[in-house]
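#lab-general

N.A. 3:47 PM
ok so I finally got the sequence cleaned up, no stray characters, all 1457 residues accounted for. can someone with queue access submit it? mine expired

B.Y. 3:52 PM
send it over

N.A. 3:53 PM
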Amino acid sequence: MSKIFISHSSANNALALAIGHWLADNGWDEYFLDLEPAKGLAPGERWQEALKAAADRCEAVLFLISPAWRDSRWCLAEFLLAKQLGKTIFGVLVEAVPLDALPKEMAAEWQVCDLVAGSQRQSFRVLHDPLVPETEISFAEAGLSRLKLGLRRAGLDPSSFPWPPPDDPRRPPYPGLRALEAEDAAIFFGREAAIVRGLDTIRSVREQGIERMFVIVGASGAGKSSFLRAGLWPRMKRDDRTFLTLPVIRPERAVLTGATGLVVSLELAFREYGTQRTRAGIRQAVQTPMGFEQLLGELQTLHNSRLGSNVVMPTVVISIDQGEELFGAEGQEEASHLLSLLAQTMSGNDRIEAFKRRQRSLVIMAIRTDAYERLQGAKAFTGISARVFSLPPIQRAEFKAVVEGPAARATAAGRRLTIQPALTERLLHDAEGADALPLLAFTLERLFTDYGAAGVLRLEDYEALGGVRGSIEAAVESAFVVPGRQPAVPADKAARERLLREGFIPWLARVDPQSDERKRRVARWDELPAASYAVVERLIGHRLLLRDRRKVDGEEVIVVEVAHEALLRQWPTLTAWLDADADALKTVDTVLRAAYEWEKNDQGMAWLAHTGERLTGAEALRQRADFERLLGEEGILYLRACRERDEEEQRRRKRVQRRIQAMMVVISVILIVTGVWIIRQTRVVAGQTSLVLTTAATTANDAGFYDRGMRFAILAMGKSWFLPESAEAEAELMRGAYASMLIAQFTGHQGRVHSAAFSPDGQRVLTASDDNTARVWDARTGQMTVQLTGHQGPVRSAAFSPNGQRVVTASEDNTARVWDARTGQMIAQLAGHQEAVRSAAFSPNGQRVVTASEDNTARVWDARTGQMIAQLAGHQEAVRSAAFSPGGQRVVTASEDHTAQVWEVTTGKQIAVLSGHQQPVVSASFSPDGQRVVTASWDKTARVWDAATGQPIAQLIGHQRALASAALSPDGQWAVTASDDNAARIWDASTGQQIAQLTGHQDSVHSAVFSPDGERVLTASWDNTARVWEARTGQPIAQFKGHQGRVVFASFSPDGQRVVTASEDKTARVWGTRAGQPIAQLIGHQDSVHSAVFSPDGQRVVTASEDKTARVWDARNGQPIALLTGHQGLVRSAAFSPDGERVVTASDDKTARVWDARNGGQIWQLAGHQGAVASAAFSPDGQRVVTASEDKTARVWDARTGSQLAQLAGHQGAVVSAAFSLDGQLVVTASWDKTARVWNARTGQTIAQLIGHQRALASAAFSPDGQRVVTASFDTTARVWDARTGQMIAPFTGHQELVWSSAFSPDGQRVVTASMDKTARVWDARTGQMIAQLIGHQGLVRSAAFSPDGQRVVTASDDKTARVWDAKTGQMIAQFTGHQELILSAVFSPDGQRVVTASEDNTARVWPIRWLVQYQGRRLAEAVCMGKLLGANLLTADDEAALSLIRGRQGENVCSS
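B.Y. 4:20 PM
back already:
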């Protein structure tokens, strides 16, 4: 990878070649020049991408400055990119250019080398055919010398640093467990790319001035300290034009005043510039942020005086190693002060101030990953941005450089050292896992120390040391191999280890209370037990411990610490001691922290954090003298204060308890005396309450408010002896259930509902609302199936297309839209109107749409493309409605300009103007034969017109107020009008004679329509009701009560048996004489339900759950029948026997069990598997059971005795399914070993092995005739096989993710698969061709199964829905929503009329349950809730108004009360 990039203008190709030759002549042969074939750009490659790709290796970028370079925007872009990447930049003047014409950053901050001026020249002859002819180039030697010096100083690789250090010629090339220092930069290998990346990032941070810190985050053992000290720091130190680097700080136990703290760092920095500052003076200055900043400013001034004039102020780099020590239990006061100093130094009062400060200082901190969260949470650093640099463990590919690089540097320095290649390979092989890097470093140090004098390190030497993993233990053993040698240690190993433990714990190690990580502790020598000095000395001699002499608070002390924290993890003996004392070490840490906070807050009682058992555990530490010494006086005082507080609290509680006991005696007497009276009165009150509720239910039922009556009756029904019910409550509930015509209430709109209409097949209802949406609902269940979202204003109308596949909506957002009625996807947007669109309707053939708008026009549109066909312009005021003629060739419009007009559809030509009304015309529609038009007006009249001529035929006069609508009967003979005079009227359309007056509404009648057979009229009124009338007599037939707001629209279903109403109460309702279709929810499991299947007669359902039980349920009402309990692990599957009398379950507890399906009693336990049992199934005759297990076997059992008949062994992975053939002679198994197998069910012999899948199998099943097998696999395919030969018949390819399940159709001609790619697919079982793709689920599809007749497929999905599909076309027929978690399975009932689903929401559900059986008691209430109060189970404001007893309970769900 090139380390120097050359950027130039194409006009300077010859000069660029000459620079390349000079670089190569001076040892920099790794450079990038686009002209050179070997080092330049590949065809089509861009310079910017090349530089970005090499960002981790590029050390410098040379810009060859010339007039052509200055004027090139591409060259400028390259300069800005290099600057953005944080690269070291050299401006090389190759042709005369004024410096003030250069980018200011280059002239002010980066190095510019002038190769033009100067008499002493160096010449080069270059040639690059055909771009550069042979040319002689010369450069000023002074400029080349300056460039050479700059490039050397910018060098980043270890070879650019001297070795050995001049002041330490015997410095070993392998430092062992100690961190490398700046003097070791020449032997720091393996992190070259990370160093480049880190320096680039630091420069970028400095340049941008946004982040104030650069945080190196890595695990213990990743080499953070060496990366900072020997990698980044010496290279920044060398770049003194940019950085002023303070000596690295290590917090230890005193980050300000310690031997490696801030004060010493500043003292050494001043000394380097020849200025003496006393340590006391520095210590005084850093007590305040201002004093600290003054010191930094003085250092910058001294630094710049060295560099000369016209230099940019360098950034002071404050480096902190082992930042986690800032958050230890000891030294908290100084740590808090340092964090505060740094935070105030880094932050500014505003953005301008921050910009000024950006070059003042930068904090670089190396910290363990597990401690970074504490740094983030430090209160002082709130608002301080940091750039995080993650330092992962060194890659194995770099270990070779770590091993051989230092040896090569030593050899180059004249101290021959070679490493045997076999040793390198062994080291690379052994250095793996946690602490690989420190262990490798320690091993290399020992090899060099013991064998380096020979000049070669060999594999046999390494093996003699015990290898990488044994190196630490071997070093410990070596330290004590001669006990009598001074300092003498005990010869007995147990005695030595006792002394070692006393020396280590608790002095040299601590355990973090939050992360449980083992960390080193710096101890003073005089803290250690004197008896342990000798053993500690031995470990110091073998470099396992480090000893240093430091000045702390003016006193020179000796400190000791472990060489590396890897020692705490990799020395088994020490690890065992730490494990044994971990709790005590964590406790002492928390006590010291708490004691510090207590002392810091003036020994306040609120800061005594230890109490109860926690305090007792902390006090137990004092039983050990070493821990008591570590606690110190402050910790002991803290614990005493905690104990005194607890004892005082205990005394106070005892006093309170005595008083309470005396009072309880008195209270008990009172309670005993009054208890019986309270219970008796409670029953009386409950009975009276029930009676009042029952009376209210009777009143509501009598008035026709049946849903209110049912709600009151449910509340009146008591639940227990303590809350008795009125005897009449159940009767009233039953009465309301029978009489109610409410099928479903559609709740969900957030604004008033303007219209509601049935689909042509009567199965759906479409509503339009002020909440900017239209919605499609299931007319039977009240469930919303589709929400049409996209309008930006209220939706005024919505209508189905004649075939029911599409919907058109009209909105006040000036648009109409056409939607797919099944999916809710928008098909076309009809945009062009300038004002609100009042109505929209399909033509009879569904190919066109007509819209009416307040912009005075109507428009005709192509319903498929949304293109406008014709604009019907001519009205002078808003158009209220527009409707097609029965033939679809004409349109009639009604307008506020007092007219209606008839138009030709294709041309937009006006045919007739229907004028005569004296007020706005609010509706106009054709007769069924298209010959006439009926209009309704605010002038209190309706009129019938000749549609061809516009001549009036009849005037319908009689209403006392404005009309809202007018409609003709299906045969065109009658007209019905709705008026604000609270009445509707029926007229003879030919003569204008009134036939009947429909009176009874208490407010305006907003709409009136005929039934499909013309025998009845349906009216909607603002009195909150709708009514059905006999058309001939005007007699009322039915009244629909229940809405809480005005009913603004009502219409019949296509068969005339149901009615839908729309109301301003934000709901729509479907009414009729047939009951709705409720949902049975099987609730009781405490965990996910894995499967649910019907019994053979379809009357029951059995479920299997992760709660370790299976349950049998009544499929009609969801009530539990039997609880199958006994398994010790989750139950994966459950299945009925062919006669429905038994159930077999499979469990993770390694057993299957056979149960009595009626009472849940266990019949047999099938034990023998050595792993979880994945499935269990009966044979077709019910005499045997086959089980599949993760123990790689399947087994056949006698279902009557529980004994094992055969073991099917041979699979190499878990067996996930097993099933009998229809004749019971064969068994097929599916396994994670990528195969399926067919077995003889009687002998257990393998008949066929089905090999071909590339990944684990999910399932396998026989075809109905037993001749074939279908398998589903995680390799995204399913396959059909010959069950006898094992030959593959057909592969099913097309799924994009793993296939969960596959199954044959009942006739065996098709296969259905379910996949993680969110689809199911139907395939031809013979050819493998896809027949249909079932698309629509939003999550992976868990299962797919055919209906008994094979015409439909039901799927279960992670999107929390199950869906029913047409197996031939793939069209979705139904969607079942309601589960709160993913659905794991869905199957049809034997009669195909119901579906049962199993879900991770701990429930199974049956869809749907018919209203066939009359229940009693609480079961009656539950059935009513599920079948008659769908969407209407909440108490309403009108309920409160009708009965003051329930005031304040609006919104309460009576079905859960």
